[in-house]
Amino acid sequence: MKEISVNGKRVIIRKANKSDARALIEYLNVIAGESDFLTFGTGQIDISTEQEETFIENSLRKENALFIVAEINGKVVGNLNFSGGLTQRTAHIGELGVSILKEYWGNGIGRELIEYLISWSRNSKIIRKINLRVRTDNKRAINLYKKLGFSKEGIVKRDFLINEKFYDSLTMGLLID
C-alpha cells in the first residue's frame, strides 16, 4: 500500500481485492464513456460481479500479475492491471493497462500507479519486461511513458476501430533488468 496527496486529498494505492469487484465494474463503465483511448467503450463492459471477483482472485494468485487501485475516500479513481505471460517462456513479460477517472487526469495518479508496478516488477525477480500499447495520437500518455523509461518499439497499424475510423497504436516496453 502507498499513500499520496492530490490537491489535498489522500489517495491510497493498494492491491485490488475481491470486495472491490462491484466498484470496479462501475468505475469501468464510467471511464468507458470518458475517453476513446481505451480498448473498450460505452456499453462494452459486460461482466458480472462474480466474473470480476474471479479475475481479481486470479490476479492475486499469480506471481507475475498485479492488479492495483487508487482510491479517494473509498472511491476507486484509478486502476492498473498487469498480466504476465502464461507459459514458462513468456512468464517474465507482461502488458499493462492503466486508467484514471477524467476528473483526476493530470494529478500524477497514473504516474504513481505505473511507478508502483515498476517497483513491484523489480522486486518480483520474475518480471523482466513491461509492455504496453497506446494510441499514436495519445501524446500525453506517450510522454508520460517516455518519462518513466519506456522505449518505442513499433507501430501496429489499424489497431483500434472506433466509429468506423481506424487508429494505429504504438508498442512500448521497459526492460526491468
UniProtKB/TrEMBL annotation:
Give all residue intervals belonging to the N-acetyltransferase domain. 11-173
Keywords carried by this UniProt record: Acyltransferase, Transferase
Q: Which EC class is this protein assigned?
A: transferase
Q: Name one Pfam family in it.
A: Acetyltransf_1
Q: Per its UniProt record, what InterPro entries does this chain match?
A: Acyl_CoA_acyltransferase, GNAT_dom
* GO MF annotation: an example: diamine N-acetyltransferase activity
| Positions in coiled-coil regions | none
Q: What is its EC number?
A: 2.3.1.57
Q: Which PANTHER family match?
A: GNAT-FAMILY ACETYLTRANSFERASE (PTHR43415:SF3), SPERMIDINE N(1)-ACETYLTRANSFERASE (PTHR43415)
Q: What is this protein called?
A: Spermidine N(1)-acetyltransferase
- What organism is this sequence from? Clostridium luticellarii
Question: What would be the name of the gene that encodes this protein?
Answer: speG
